[in-house]
Amino acid sequence: MLECLPQVPEDSILGLAAACRADPNPRKVDLTVGIYMNEEGLCPVFDAIRLAQDALVQEERTKAYMPPAGDPGFNSGMQQLVLGLGSPALLDGRVSSIQTPGGCGALRVGAEIINAAAPGARVWVSDPTWPVHIPLLGSVGLQFATYRYYDPASHGVNFDALVEDLKGARHGDVVLLHGCCHNPCGADLSLEQWAQIADMADHQGFLPFIDIAYQGLGDGLDADAAGLRLLVERLPEVLIAASCSKNMGLYRERTGATLFVSANPASAAALRTQAQVAARRIYSMPPAHGALLAARVLQDEALNANWRNELEAMCWRINGLRTSLVSKLEQCTGRDFGFIEREKGMFSFLGLSADQALALREQYSVYMLDSSRINVAGINGANIDYLAESVGKVLQAG
Ligand code: LMR
C-alpha cells in the first residue's frame, strides 16, 4: 500500500542546512536555518537555562504526563512576557493560553481553533512569509489569500500595497502578522502602521493572528511586542503564537504557547478547553522539559535578570553584525546594502537572484536560501570577510 508514495523534495530550509552540514569545505558558511550562533559558530545554551536545568534535574521526581494545557507557571509567565505585566486584557481576565510543542505547535493549535470557529476560513498571509506557514495552517483546512508586504526595490515594507490588499479582508477572515523580526525579510511595521492595521481590523472585523517567534531579538523584549500589544489593547479578539526557541535558545525542546485574547473571561476560558481538545487530537500533551526551564527563568528574579542580559547582548551583537556586514558588502561590491541595518532580527534578503544564491552555494560553499534570505546570526568574525568577498565575486560574474 505504502509503495505508491513517491519521494518528495526536502524542506526548503532544513534541506539546505543538511546540504551545508555535508559540505566538506572548511570555509563553508551556514546562513540557512534561523538559529543564533555565537562568535565560535555554536548555538549556545543560555546561562540562565543551564542553571535552571541543573536545578530541575536535581529536583524533578516524575516524568508523568503534563496536563494538555501544559505547565500553569509557564502559561502565566508567557502571557506576561508577551502581553506585558500591566496588560488590560490580562488584568481583565480576557486571556488564556496553552503550552505547545514550539512555535509551530502554537500556530497549529491556533489554526485548529480558527477552523473550529469558521471551517475553511481564509487566512491572509504576507508576501513573502515563512514558507512553513502555508502547510502548517493549510493542513487544518484553512484557505489562503496574500497581501503584499515586502518591496524588493526599496527593501522595505510596501505599506500602501498592504493596506490596499487588506481592504479585502472581511469579518470571518484571519490576518496573519509577524509580531517582529519578519521572517524572511527582516522589514518590520512601524507603530503607526500597527495602529492603522488595528483600525482596519476594528472596522472590517477580521481577526489578527500574530506569530511572534523572535521577541527580544529586534529592539528588545518590550519594544518587539509593542505592535502586538497595541492590537491587543484595541481589539476584542487576537490570537498569538509565541515561541521560546530563539529568545531562550530552547529550539530542540519545542517550547511555545498559543495565547487567546477574547472578548470576555468566559470566552477565554472556553477557548482554552477547545485548545486542550485540539491538542489531545494532535499530540495529546506538550513536552515538559523546555517549558519547565522557561517557567523557572520567567519566575525567578535572578534567573530572569540573567536571561534578559544575555538576550540583550545577543540582540546587540546581531545588530552589530548587521552594521559590519553592510560595510563589508559595500567594500566588496560597491553597492548600497544600508537596508540590512534598518532591518530587524535574524533575517534579511541580500537581494540576489536564485541563480546567484546557487552560485554562492556551489562555488563558495556559502549557504543561504534561494530567496537570498540570510540568517544574520550565522555570521561571525571568522566568516564575514569570506562571505562578503564571495558575494562580491558572484555579483561581478553577473
Ligand atoms: C527558519 O525560518 O529558519 C526558522 O524558523 C526555523 C525553521 O523551522 O524553519
From TrEMBL:
Cofactors that this protein relies on: pyridoxal 5'-phosphate
Membrane-crossing residue ranges in chain numbering: none
InterPro entries associated with the record: Aminotransferase_I/II_large, Asp_trans, PyrdxlP-dep_Trfase, PyrdxlP-dep_Trfase_major, PyrdxlP-dep_Trfase_small
Pfam families in the cross-refs: Aminotran_1_2
Keywords tagged on the record: Aminotransferase, Pyridoxal phosphate, Transferase
CDD domains assigned: AAT_like
UniProt protein name: Aromatic amino acid aminotransferase
A GO term from the CC aspect: cytosol
Subunit structure: Homodimer.
Gene Ontology terms, MF aspect: identical protein binding; L-aspartate:2-oxoglutarate aminotransferase activity; L-tyrosine-2-oxoglutarate transaminase activity; pyridoxal phosphate binding
The keyword Transferase appears for this protein: yes
Family, as annotated: Belongs to the class-I pyridoxal-phosphate-dependent aminotransferase family.
Coiled coil region boundaries: none
BP-aspect Gene Ontology terms: L-phenylalanine biosynthetic process from chorismate via phenylpyruvate
Domain Aminotransferase class I/classII large: 27-390
